[in-house]
Amino acid sequence: MDNLFLKYMTKREGKQEKPRTSTQHPGPVITISREYGCHGKRIAEKLAEVLTAKSEASGENKTWRWISKEILDESAKELNLSSALVKELSDYKHRSFFKDLALFFSEDFYPGDATIKNTIARYIHEEAEQGYVIVVGRAGEAITKNIDRSFHVKLEAPLEWRAEVVAEEENISIPEAKKECQEQDKRRAMFRDYFERGKKDIDFFDAILNCKALSDDEILELLVIISETRGFI
After folding, report:
1. Whole-angstrom Cα distance, residue 52 to residue 206?
2. Which of 9, 24, 48, 185 is the most exposed place for a label (fewest CB within 10 A)?
């Protein structure tokens, strides 16, 4: 089956598509997007453990895994850059004047914005095709939306609630935490918009959950039930 997503991404980059073995029945994959201060990684880790245990109990014996840091690590290897630099460049963090010059004049040293994002996207999509994976962040909902066996959830909460969480965890003041939430949300939205092209959340997410109203265990239970009803386990 032709991978239309990879063809689209390579065309945007102006590169030839590398031949690769296609997956006959891609997925299942669950993506978790989150506003800053909502604990997507913690929920993903627990969800992978529960789904793996249920799969083993059913005799299917499929191991679920979750990826977040690995996305940047593996993309960095392909780009021959450090994970920290790939994160900095993809997060739109401030660059020094000389680094901006290097980015502008030579992609031999620092790949352009599109190259970095498309490399990240290819890694996520290939992992999703292999299946039994939970993708945290990095526009996973848009990148894997073409996979039939997929479910996409976004975790949200009021800014004031998230600021209190961040202030306690990072030992900073509430105003500082509120500003940090807003800045992080803006960076994440900029990254997502590269793939979502300004479309509304409803075009990508199957569910949006309020972390203030729901505990981790309640969110986890909902995701497990959905995984069962969709035949992921």
Report:
1. 22
2. 24
* Upper half-sphere CA count for residue 35 (Cβ side, 13 Å): 21
pLDDT at 23: 60
pTM: 0.82
Contact status, residue 155 vs residue 43, Cβ threshold 8 Å: yes
Q: For residue 104, what pLDDT is reported?
A: 46
Spell out the residues 6+ positions from residue 108 whose beta carbon is closer than 8 angstroms to its own: none
Q: Which two tokens stand for residue 218?
A: 């309640």
Task: Say what the alpha-carbon torsion angle 190, 192, 194, 198 is, to the nearest 10 degrees.
Answer: -90
**Tokens 């292999």 -> residue:** 130
Helix 216-229 / helix 40-58 crossing angle, nearest 10 deg: 40
Residues 6+ apart with CB under 8 A from 74: 123
pLDDT means over runs of 10, the chain (233 residues): 48 44 79 96 97 95 94 88 77 51 50 84 95 96 95 97 97 97 92 88 93 97 96 93
Measured distance CA(228)–CA(33) in Å, rounded: 21
Report the Cα 203 to chain-centroid distance in Å.
16
Whole-number pLDDT of residue 86: 79
- The alpha-carbon radius of gyration of the chain (Å, integer) is 18
Sheet of strand 29-34: strand arrangement: 65-67, 133-136, 29-34, 150-156, 207-210
